[in-house]
Amino acid sequence: MMRNQQSAFTSERPTAAVGIIEFSSIAKGIEGADLMLKTADVRLLISRTICPGKHMSMIAGDTAAVRSAIDAAAEGAEREVVDTFVIPNLHPDVIPAVEGTVLYGEMDALGIIESFSVASLVEAADQAAKTAKVKLLEIRLAMAIGGKAFVTLTGEVAAVRAAVEAGAAKVSAKGLLVNKVVIANPRPEIVRDLI
After folding, report:
1. DSSP E strands: which ranges in 41-188?
2. What are the start and end residues of each CATH 3.30.70.1710 domain in the chain?
């Protein structure tokens, strides 16, 4: 586990593509992260253990380089790969939501998409943000939630419904959707305790 790692999200270089690979084995995950960095010119944004005893890495760079690095890591650990993805043009709300740095006020609606995998959830969050005028609030990645992941988002009720449906469809296509909800006019206590 990388302890004194700075937030790599604050890099000055723009991100053309982002990729995630999630492993069922911590050892293979660490090896996979090393292999990705040796395969292509990519930046390692996150490389850490996640519950329950898994490992995930998120990389950024040119789209072709990210695809090449993810493919190399997946080939080297075929049995231990839980999920992967590459998003060529990541929505700008995704990184702040992963970091948990989004501020919020009153909400017309609160949407939640829950997934069995980190990778599919980041894809869902990106799709949701690109589908309708919503604000991603938080993307919680498998820490203290049994290896699952979820995204919370807000906006007008109709926009939140459209975004949640689009994001949930992305996760459902992989068979990894746990649940999805839209709460109109959420109570402030719920929002305060959730985010």
Report:
1. 42-50, 54-61, 81-87, 109-115, 134-141, 149-155, 177-184
2. 8-87, 94-194
Say whether domain 94-194 belongs to CATH 3.40.50.300: no
Whether pTM > 0.85 for this model: the answer is: no
**Amino acid occupying residue 108:** D
Query: In this structure, which CATH number among 3.40.50.1010, 3.30.70.100, 3.30.460.10, 3.30.70.1710 belongs to the domain 8-87?
Result: 3.30.70.1710
Digit-by-digit pLDDT tens for the chain (195 residues) are 222 333 344 434 445 788 999 899 999 999 999 999 999 999 998 888 887 788 989 998 999 999 999 999 999 787 899 888 898 888 888 877 877 766 677 789 999 999 987 778 888 999 999 999 999 998 887 665 666 889 999 999 999 999 999 999 999 998 989 999 999 998 887 776 666
* DSSP helix/strand/coil, 71: helix
Sign of CA dihedral 158, 114, 70, 37: positive
